[in-house]
Amino acid sequence: MAKTFVTSDSHWGHKNICLKFTDSDGKRVRPFDSVEEMDEFMIRRWNETVNPEDTVWHLGDFDFYHNTSKTQNIVNRLNGKIRLIMGNHDYFHKSGDAKKLIDIFGGVYQWNMLSVKGQIHVLSHFPLHRSTFDYVAADGTQSNAINVHGHIHQRLINEPGYLNVGVELTEYRPVDINDLPKLYMKQQNPNYRRPITKEELARSIIK
User: How confident is the model at residue 100 (pLDDT cuts 50, 70, 90)?
Assistant: First the structure.
């Protein structure tokens, strides 16, 4: 049976995030030695996880090529039907960006809503203000919705109601929506952090 996944902030082709971005401890956020290594690793992770019949909601900042053919080449190598929620870096350098993105991804959105095991999840690139997603229904009940987001990479919002699915926190794999409740509970632990290790990278990289 086809599955649905979410992920965010792949940044394929982004040299600086690969080599220069550091965390508060001074260590590089992504343990790759080149853009090519990073790109190939993330493609392999994606295809190990997602089957061709599955759907993946990508929550923005898909790549840094900003070039129609290069973006299309990445998409062509990935399993599944990809739906893009626009991030702040999802654009090309010529006019007609929105149409080009629709042609490549089949659907481009500002946000979406999914119900997982009775829990409402609001998908967006940027973390949303609580008032925009945790609403009061007509019968007076609180939705207690969770904002599934990206944008802030390895960092977490230290309050309930937010779930970061940026690749740095998900072992560079898309997350099955049925696993979102488990990941949410992990991220509620203030000490939670699961960056991939250099040793794991060495075992998994495509030769």
Answer: confident
Written as six digits, the tokens of 62 are 């898909």
Q: What is the mean pLDDT of residues 88-103?
A: 74
CA atoms within 13 A on the CB side of 38: 22
Rounded CA gap, 110 and 41, in Å? 28
Is the distance from CB of 54 to CB of 178 less than 8 angstroms? no
Distance CA 153, CA 145 (A): 21
Location of structure tokens 């997982």: 116
Cα torsion 169, 172, 173, 174: sign: positive
Would the CA dihedral through 67, 18, 86, 88 be positive or negative?
negative
Would you say how long the chain is, in residues?
A: 207
Strands 119-123 and 112-116: antiparallel
- Rounded Cα distance, 114 and 44, in Å: 26
